[in-house]
Amino acid sequence: WYQREVVIPSSWSGKEIVLTLERCHWTVTVYVDGQRVGEDDRLSVPDRFVLTPLLSPGVHTLTVCVDNRMKYPMDQWAHGVTEYTQTNWNGIVGRMELEARPVAAIRKMRIDPDVDSRKIRVRLDLGDGASPLKGELSLQVTAAEGGRIVNAVTVPVAVSSGKSEVIHEMEMGRDMRLWDEFDPALYRLTAVLKSESGADTCTSVFGMRKVEQGKHHIRINGHNVHLRGVLDCAVFPLTGYPSTSVADWARIMTTIKSYGMNHIRFHSWCPPQAAFEAADSLGLYLQVELPMWIKDVGSCPQRRDFFEREMYAILDEYGNHPSFVLFCNGNENEGDFAVLEDLVKKGQAYDNRRLYSASTARTHVASDQFYVSHVTDKGWITVYEGKPSTDWDRNAESDIDVPVIAHETGQRCMYPDFREIKKYTGVLEPRNFAVFRERLARNGMLDQANDFFRATGAHTVLQYKEVNEALMRTSRSGGFQLLGLADFPGQGSAFVGILDAFWESKGLVTPEKFRESCAPVVVLARLPKRIFSPEETLSVRMDVYQFGPEDIRRGHLDWWLADGDGKRIESGRLSHGSIARGGVDSVGAVRLPLGKITEAGKYTLHAALGNVHNEWDLSLIHI
User: What is residue 323's predicted lDDT score, i.e. its pLDDT?
Assistant: First the structure.
């Protein structure tokens, strides 16, 4: 329960007074002077209450109750409601504010970019629709960086009773910049409505980008994109609830991008506004989900109605953000998929600025515009571990009617680093660490804890290299989503990340080294095996994963074989033609007779395309 006295100034008389609570968990009831105003049950967007009838000028008592009990049967896993990651926190985070606005106000502003015609279509909901409205509307588009005015118009508006929508198109000019991961160019639209009830201002940041369903890839602005993704499972070890700070999200997302990633899937939850703002400015592609991880879809009509309301609320609240490119109902759902497909169809009809999917994993429906899964009807697409060779891919399995994104890839576990325990200075205790530490102590091996961590961590780094490269070799793959670039401590313990639960490095691999096998451009080798004898010839097809910002001009690829000390034993060069962006291309084959290498041992094949480098270990043995 929250309660405080508020003083309403006389200048607010005749205005609409709105209470905004940014992120609540879960059901909110508001009272003014003991009189119940209303109830709301948002989980993904702010709760807003119109308090105008009860907040006259003077002193009032404002009371808010937040009830974190399950309002609908939600199972126990979805990260929007679970106690496992962001905890079953109770209360309000982020902004809590009272705002006075003119009765004739801009209640909603939607911006639809039209990249092909270099225009935006602005849709505004004005007033309350109960009475006719006459006034003047000013619209100004500026570059978010620098403030350069792109276009500005002022037009009269006249809305009849019972209607509230006004639509206006604006030219973006010849110098229009497109938004993507390489150039996250942003614009700001400022709308000012002047009427008899006063002036009201609404602003929104947007980007000029077009999202399309390609044959095997998501397409941004006409180019194939391969999603190199991580999961965000609402893990906040210090607070137990999601941050609403742009700086916090920018730190996390800058780290993610430094490891070569361009995509985040918000696993069965939707983040606050700050996450979208950070992703917009950094150029990350987001998949947002409802707080849904349900094993009996369709069994509860009230819950189904809640999810539909929640979907519309998410699209209204965050729909202008260019980073918001994918929407999915939730994670690994089971039950009546006709219910899930109905939500997809309604979302597509309501807002076509992004692509939709019924469920992450389990069942592919006809209305899906992309499909995230472990498996298709043609076989497994998710890769959990490498193989002795690298001459394989998931092309056959990925060849279905929509772009396929591999679900929760990797999942390589390592031993915990007990030094991380000291970071838990907030509401959560690292009891999972204590379990492992007690086991080691009981068996007389606690002094080896760091050795276990370093050895299993090194193995994890190698496995992720194999997993990522396997899906990069797959030219029909739409992308992958690692279960964890960072650890996933919910539902038990999953020490699967090269980063800890705080999105901080464990010291296992640098971002630069990780990007050799996870970046917009990566050199790939198709090794038939890893162990050779001197009688054999090393024959390796060299590919280039090319999802960079532009075509690569014709040039050459350098390769060399180094011994265990790093000394070059053999080297060569492959010439290549232009390599178009948006696919995987072969640039030739390395052929090296091994007979003149006399010493058995570990060797490393290196390849470099300009400043893009990669390497693969192999062994030479004498039989």
Answer: 98
Whole-number Å distance between alpha carbons of 277 and 279: 6
Q: How confident is the model at residue 129 (pLDDT cuts 50, 70, 90)?
A: low
CA separation for the pair 89, 27 (Å, rounded): 12
The residue count of the chain comes to: 623
Of 27, 472, 461, 13, nearest in space to 198 by CA: 13
Residue 526's closest CA among 451, 566, 457, 472? 472
Both structure tokens of 418: 């007990």
Q: How far apart are CA 587 and CA 297, in angstroms?
A: 48
Residue 179, Cβ neighbours under 10 Å: how many? 24
What dihedral angle (degrees, nearest 10) is formed by the CA atoms of 267, 272, 276, 278? -110
Whether the per-residue pLDDT at 622 is higher than 90: the answer is no
- How far apart CA 310 and CA 605 sit, in angstroms, is 52
- Angstrom distance (rounded) from CA 350 to CA 365: 19
- With H, G, I as helix, E, B as strand and everything else as coil, classify residue 456: helix
- Cα gap 364→362, rounded to integer Å: 7
CB 542 within 8 A of CB 557: yes
- 551-609 pLDDT tens trace: 999 999 999 999 999 999 999 999 999 999 999 999 999 999 999 898 999 999 999 99
3-state secondary structure of 484: coil
Residue labelled with tokens 């280039």:
544
- Interacting residues of 181 by C-beta distance below 8 A, sequence separation 6+: 220, 225, 262, 283, 284, 285, 520
Could you give the maximum distance between any two Cα atoms of the chain, in Å?
A: 94
DSSP lists the bridge partners of residue 583 as 546
Single out the residue of 505, 490, 499 nearest to residue 86, CA to CA: 490
Query: pTM of the entire structure?
Result: 0.97
Using pLDDT thresholds of 50, 70 and 90, give the confidence band for residue 383.
very high
Contact 615, 580 (CB under 8 A): no
Is it the case that residue 160 has pLDDT exceeding 90?
no
Q: What are phi and psi of 434, to 5 degrees?
A: -65, -35
Identity of the residue numbered 516: E
How do 555-562 and 601-609 pair as beta strands? antiparallel
Place of tokens 């700001």: 188
Mean pLDDT score across all residues of the chain? 96
